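The passage that follows is intended for readers who have already worked through the single-chain material. We present the inputs for a multi-component assembly, then the predicted structure in tokenized form, and finally a short commentary. You are encouraged to pause after the input and sketch how you expect the pieces to fit together before reading on.
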Amino acid sequence: MSKWIRWQGVIAFVVVVLLVAGVWFLVVDRVIKRAIEKTGTMLVGAKVELGEADFSLFPLGLTLSRLQVTNPDQPMTNAVEIARIAFSMDGPNLLRRKLIVEEATVEGVRLTTPRTASGAIVRRPAEAEPVSKKAMGDLFSLPSLSAINVQEILSKEELGSQTLVESLRTDLQAEQEQWQKRLAALPDKAKLDSYRKRLEGLKSAGKGGLGGVVGGASEALAIQQDLSRDLDQIKSAKNSFEDHVTGLRKRMDEAVRAPQEDARRLMEKYSLSGSGLANVTGMLIGGTIGDWTATSLRWYAKLQPLLQRKAERKRDVEIVKPVRGKGVDVRFKERAPLPDLLIRTTHVSVEVPAGAIKGQVKNITPDQPILGVPLTFEFVGDKLKGLQSVKLDGTLSRVDPARPSDRANLRMRGYRVEDLSLSKSEQWALALKQALADMDLQATLRGEALNAKLVATLQSVQIASGVKAGAGVLANAVASALSDVKGFTLKAEVTGTVENYEVKLASDLDRVLKDVVGKQVQAQTARLETELQSAIAEKVAGPLNELKASFGGLDSVGTELASRLNLGTDLLKGVKGGSPGGFKLPF
Amino acid sequence: MLNMIANLLKVLNSEAEPGQISLALCFSMIAGLTPFWSLHNLLVVLLVLFLRVNLSAFLLGLALFSGLAFLLDPLFHVMGLAVLTAGPLEGLWTTLYNSTLWRLERFNNSIVMGSLLFSLLIFIPLYYGANLAILRYREHVMQWILQTRVMQAFTTSRLYRMYQSVSGWGWGGGA
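Having made your guess, compare it with the prediction:
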């Protein structure tokens, strides 16, 4: 037996195990720190840095200090900086590879803090952020307040009328060539004259007795048949020609009308028309609201891995792709199902310039279907500096992965707005110098359907509009109207999908501005319309006249076809008898 | 590399029991082919230290099979996934899945399951195969190798001196 047993091996085993455990305990903090930084950076798309991670065995828990999450859009700013995160873990469940945290504390959360070094990372092209289909700057553009130059518009705009005239001219030329060829192939005057000669020959043969009469009858029948066949060809060609001409005439009419259509389209685009003024709010502050929406949705997308993990089902078992490591983990039914990661309650304290906002986040897990309840959050702040009260609550539900449903409500009262830039346009900078705002926001996302409604009431308003000197009467009128505004209501609605959404804005500012600038706009619109119409007409006149001349060339084809048809028809009548010069059978 | 070759020669030419060398190779196969930081490898290490198996052979085999595992991982994944998702075995896996010990073992990972299953299936054939090979080597090849000119030249080389330097290691002989 002793030949196979080595008792001192047990001591060596204990020593090896203790050594490994000791080394692990020495490096575990560093490993956790690196794992959090690496995973966080990958999720956010900018540097995530952790000051320190402290793992303790008794009691089993983890404390993270100074977590900095860089704002990917502003690498010298942290989107979030958290002073301390502490949580205790459930030991037995950890052995089953389940990280269950009953209570976590997140202290000293600060938003948009400056960084000492850039938090940008070099991204591979495949990881680049998808650009929103509609850049928000394109959604809303400020009306031009400077004098609109018609020649400048025409130099950069493609005129539909020009394109139409050019294409019609090419088609007309092709048609003319085609019909000239077809005319050449059809029975012409010479051929029709040959029938006349054959008929005259027949008349003289008819005077040669009974035999001549009988032979003449069969020859007359042959002429009649030949002539009918030729006439059918001419008739068919004439019908086809008339169809073509009808189509071309229709296009010709369109080409004649096209300059007016161009003028109307360019008016809509460049003038301060009624429809342009109907949503001045959208033009002025739509870009800012759009930017806020885009930023919110971008951060929401980054949260997705925390809400739901990728998994596929095979029979009754679930195959879960682990974030790291080789192979796949197959998940079977559990007697007491628990998610792999669950933080039941997280107490959060957010420090904003106005004071502290405290809240709770419940049930953070990427396995909501297993837990059966959604993630909920609630943050409340009262009697803050420059903010009477604020409440944010909501639910992020992935309980049924096929029907994800998220909801968030924000209620803000007595928020003192100061120096909020509404439009950074060089031409027409606009800032809310001061206002007292009450705001209600309700946002839902069910599957792909996004819906958000914002109602903001602003009082004690002071608007500063930076209209450039010499911008004209209209610009000054708008600036003056905005400086008189003491309060307004703003309604915003975001609808569509996360990928493709539309922002609609409405405000009583629209009415105020429309009244003030209406007269100036009308005058400018009328001037622009006249100038545009005459400039387009001048530009298109030459090609249009050429087109009309080309169309005249087609008329000669029609005349020729009609003339051959008439000649042939007369001859046919002569063969059948009863017409002058016709051939009449004697019985 | 030179050290490894020297060790291999030392092990094969030593007077260690063929069974001790073969068993060491079999254990190294389990530890090398399966992910090393798995619970079952703790048992393997305990057995390697507790049973009088040849440690040099175990370490050599561990290096060899760990390298081989990189090539065989795709096969282990397919094997493991097929076994874990096999309908008739679902009850067994579900029971094991609800046990803390087996969850620690990570048996539900396709590569852990595939490589462990493969190693266990090969364990006994490898043991007897290696035993036979060592006996044959010692009977027919060892003496012949030692008498070849190449081997005689080799005995004067740096490699051989290295072999001699490690031949005194107490753990290598398994005694």
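Commentary: Residues 18 and 47 of chain B are 17 Å apart (CA to CA). Chain B has nine helices and no strands. How closely did your sketch match?
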